[in-house]
Amino acid sequence: MFAENLSRREFMAAALVAGLISGCSRRGSYFGACRPPQTQSLVYLLGAEPETLDPGLTTPSFESFIIPTMFEGLVTVHPQDCTPMAGIATHYTESHDHVSFAFFLRGHPQPRGFRLANTDTLVAQFASRHCQQDFGRGRTSPPDHIPAKWSDGRPVTAHDFVYAWRRVVDPESAAPYASYFYYLLNGEEIHLGHRPVEDLGVVAAGDFELVVTLRAPSPFLLQQISHRVFAPVPAHAVRAARLLGAEQRWTDAERIIVNGPFRLHRWSPYDEIVVRKNPVYWESGLVRLDEVRFWPTDDGTVAANLYKADKAYSMPGERLPQVFPPLLAGMKDFHTGPAFFTVYHGFNTRHPPFDNPLVRYAFNMALDKERIASVLGAARKPARNLVPPLPWYPKLERLEMDIDGSRCDVLAHSPQTARELLAKAGVDPRALRLELSFSNIPHSRLVAEMLQHQWRVELGAQVDLRMLEYKEWIETNTRLVYRGITEIGWWANYLDPNTFLDLFTAGSSHNWTGWFDPQFDQLLISANAAPSAADRTALLLECERRLLEAMPIIPLFFNSWAYLQKPFVRGMEQNPLDIHPFKYAWIDPNV
Amino acid sequence: MTIATAFAVLTLLFFLVRMAPGSPFSTERNLGPVAEARLRAHYGLDQPATQQYIRFLASLAGFRISDRTWRPWPDFGQSIHFKNRSVNSLIVQALPVSLVLGASAYLLAILAGVSTGSALANDRHRWKGGFVSAFTQAGLFVPAMVLGPVLVLIFALEAGWFPPARLEWAWYSGHWKIPTVRSAALPVITLAAYHFAYITRLFRGQLRETMQKDFIWAARARGLSPSRVFRRHALAEALVPVLSYSGPALASLVSGTIVVEQMFAIPGLGNYFMQAAANRDYFLLLGLSAFAVMALLLANLLTDIAHALLDPRIRDA
User: Fold this and answer.
1) Which residues of B124-150 are buried (b: 16+ CB within 10 A; e: fewer)?
2) How far is CA B255 from CA A243, A313, A334, B174, B243, in A?
């Protein structure tokens, strides 16, 4: 079944790679050579050419690996567990109603409130074995009263943040991530052109204090603002480029001004992006790499070849084509790990037969998700619910519903019950011609063929597969013109159930099912305003339960990261968001 | 006639790319109606299609209607995907890479093809002819997407003689880059294989036919040596069909080869073409297409000139 479902291109790659791997390597060995380079130069394989290096205009692509090397926001993320750590801010205070935050930036003479974790924390965590790697390498964090600096020597101030955030939310900028600022007071109204940007809920209270006011309580704010779109930009550099008539040219190598651990040395499209150590970075003493070379390679097989030939040393968690993980399993430099990433399929709930919840339950219950996850391999786990496992969030494994007087767990795999539900709904699946839309990205066809097969065998439903080119797939989903079912997935940016549940609120642009429920929206607002963590957890769970009761989606599997990394690359740990602060990375020549 | 065909192709392409489902601004992150409207206005996509078409035609002639300026070369406008980059600058950036690779592949194909073809035309051993015939058949029918990975597997990953992908630069100055022979070897061979096979068969067949012509017998009767007969009399005539084939082949090679550039992660025009289509970057797509059409026109012109130089019948006509 595995081989039957491969695309022609994948099959060819599989045949070649299988021959190569089986011929020259065994379980417990390495995939290719492992000779550490003599310099601190890390070669990292990207999936695609970035559209921009401007943090404010960043797009949902592999820029997530490059931009944070050059621009640092108020907070960064822990290299292992992705919790917030001190970036440009060292401390913060929070109002009692959780809608107002004050951030104290590096350089503030008297910071107050909660102290954010920093390198000292990492050193302590390594000593207590909480961290698997010595990210801090025994160093102490620099004093908080010394301001962080832009690469041209100017201090990074709260005004830079105000400028950057207003610029993103300004509709004139057409920033793809502007909706992230809807959590701020007036963010949505400004982006829709109803208010001036000056009304955004962010003000500078002096050079080193930033006051942020939210629209509603958002306990995940600290995590969310670690996203690259919240990084400051140097107003003077952007304005200078604008005067030349090309605002976005401010990120050209000869003009760019950065505040992160690395600065741009060269950007040669489709060839390489080279960033080199920034000597004026506030924690430059911790940075051991002299440079990171990012190589954009669209083709995952090419990426694997470059890795095998010892030309590249590491890659993102979703870079390898589907054929590789089974062949690489057991090799020392092949790693898999859980991702905070759910793959699910959406129903078009506006049209029959999926306007009927009983039909949606039936199509969910007919699927053997264990089988799907095992075929895909690479540590993927079957999903009964939407939110991937979190240590503090209970997993919703069962959902008993009362259907015509009988109890039924609608999250379970039960083809017999699925057939009964269809009968109760008065739907003859053999009379249906359904369509399953999916995009031309890796894995999608294989998953779609498995779904088609299982629905045909278990329900007798005829499902036509419709592979759409990416832009067409987006258009089809956002306009809700697909007929039947569509493939969706969500790769979260922060570790909180809100990132998944928020997708299904009425205002979400990613709610591609046509389903919305005012009570669901209200529950989510209440959860985020809950007075205690326990109350919030209970309400979030209630929220997810309400979503699954309506079942506008079929949660399919929790995705995983599967990647190759040379053993001499240190300080880069697997984590659920696949975020790697390169400032902690180094090359160990003694491995 | 050729210019009319090019005009028709570009016109068709102009309307086809706009009819393709999905917009340049469709992303998983909704831009919002106000921001999207402003972007459309910025790129002139809010204007009627006829106005956009007139603007496109004017840009081909170097006119920029928005600021009423003219340059003696086409101005394809701004790329939508690569923010604030002009299509011209992207072509200038990628062209040298495709040009060096394409020209190298073309030279390899023509030198190897003509040499092999002439060697075979004179050879009387049937088994050698059969062997080379099978070899060139394989060159014609094994696509680059198979040949490339096989070469990578054997010569890069197993033998370690060449890098499996990417070009390493021996020299560069501005946009002009010369790759190392080692890094360019596999992509050039992959690119050249088909053309080598085709040219070999074409040249061999034509040379055999030429060698039977009266003027060749006359030259031999005058006591000229076989090599002199070949160089002075047969070669020029046998090269005519090769030249006819070479014009479009050279144009296609230097204007970007999507499969090989993707396979070897080469930053050439083919890569841009593919991304422009996937991202609905109308201006980049049309600019690259117009460039490819111009390259074809130029190659055909050069072919005609070369024909005239080689064949006195054409020159006199």
Assistant:
1) eeeeeeeebbeebeebeeeebeebbbe
2) 35, 32, 39, 20, 18
pLDDT in tens, A320-338: 888 888 889 889 999 999 9
CA-to-CA dists, residue A242 to A238, B37, B67, angstroms: 6, 21, 18
Is B152 in a helix, a strand, or coil?
Answer: helix
| Residue A108 · residue A144 · CB < 8 Å | yes
Beta bridge partners of A338: A560
Query: Which of A248, A296, A470 is the closest to B84 by Cβ?
Result: A248
The backbone region for A312, taken as left when phi is positive above 0, alpha when psi lies in -120 to 50, beta otherwise, is beta
DSSP, res A272: E
Place of tokens 């651990």: A261
Which pLDDT score is estimated for B231? Answer: 80
Testing the interface with B: which of A46, A61, A305 to mutate, by most B Cβ within 10 A?
A: A305
Say yes or no for a CB contact (<8 Å) between B83 and A248. yes
pTM of the model: 0.89
Q: Please provide the distance, in angstroms rounded to a whole number, between the alpha carbons at the two ends of chain A.
A: 40
The answer to whether residues B76 and B95 touch, using CB atoms and an 8 Å cutoff, is no
Task: Convert A342-360 to b/e letters by CB count within 10 Å (16 or more is b).
Answer: bbbbbbbbeeebbebbbbb
Parallel, antiparallel, or unpaired: how do β-strands A334-347 and A484-491 relate? Answer: antiparallel
* Closest to A106 measured CA to CA, from A219, A208, A222, A252: A208
Kindly report, residue by residue over A205-215, the tens digit of the pLDDT: 999 999 999 99
B23 and A51: CB-CB below 8 Å?
no
| Angle of helix A444-459 versus helix A415-424 axis, rounded to 10 | 70
Q: Which residues of A touch B100 (CB under 8 A)?
A: none
* Cα distances (angstroms) measured from residue B106 to each of A191, B152, B235, B236, B245: 53, 21, 19, 19, 11
Query: Which residues 16-75 of B are in CB contact (within 8 Å) with A?
Result: 20-23, 25-36, 38-39
In chain B, where does DSSP find H-type helix?
2-19, 33-42, 49-60, 87-122, 126-141, 144-151, 181-211, 214-221, 226-229, 235-254, 258-263, 269-278, 282-310, 312-316
Nearest to A269 among B39, B160, B267 (CB): B267
| Token representation of residue A318 | 């979703």
Strands A462-468 and A433-439: parallel
Asked if the ipTM is above 0.90, the reply is no
Q: Is A178 in contact with B33 (Cβ distance < 8 A)?
A: no
Residue A174 and residue B27: Cβ atoms within 8 Å? Answer: no
Are A260 and B131 in contact, with CB atoms under 8 Å apart? no
Least CB–CB distance from A51: residue in B83, B149, B265: B83
B265 vs A249: CB contact, 8 Å cut-off? no
CB within 8 Å of chain A, chain B residues 219-258? none
Contact B29 A176 (CB under 8 A): yes
Report CB contact under 8 Å: A475, B146: no
Query: Which DSSP letter does residue A31 get?
Result: S
Element (H, E) at A361: helix A357-365
Chain B interface includes A100 (CB < 8 A) = no
CA distance linking residue B76 with residue B62, whole number of Å: 8
Q: Which residues of chain B have pLDDT under 70?
A: 1, 123-126, 255-256, 314-317
Size of interface A-B (CB pairs under 8 A): 148
What is the C-alpha separation between A353 and A455, in angstroms, rounded?
Answer: 15
Residue in A173, A177, A265 with CA at minimum distance from that of residue B83: A173
Q: Do A193 and B263 touch (CB under 8 A)?
A: no
Pick from A547, A551, A423, A559: which is nearest to A485 by CA? Answer: A551
- Tell me the pLDDT tens digit for each residue of B239-284: 888 888 888 888 778 766 888 998 999 999 988 988 898 888 999 9
Q: Which residue has the tokens 């961290």?
A: A131
CB contact under 8 A, B23 and A298: no
